[in-house]
Amino acid sequence: MTDQVLKVIEPTYGVQLAGLKADLKKHDIETLLSRIRALSGVIGTTKVHELDGPGYHAMAEAICGQIGKVVNVRLPKDISPYGELVSWITGSARSHPVEIFTTNYDLLFEEAFERVKAPYFDGFTGAREAFFDPASVSGDEHAPRWTKLWKLHGSLGWKANVHGEVIRTGQPDATHLVFPEHLKYDQTQKAPYSALLDRLRAFLATDDTLLVSIGFSYGDAHISARIDEGLAANPAASVFAFQFQTLDQEPCACELAARRPNFSVYARDKAVVNGVSADWATPGDLPTKDWGPIRDSYWGASAPGGPKEFKLGSVDAFARFFAASRSPQAFVTTPVAPASALPVT
Question: Which stretches in the chain have pLDDT values below 50?
Answer without folding.
Answer: 333-345
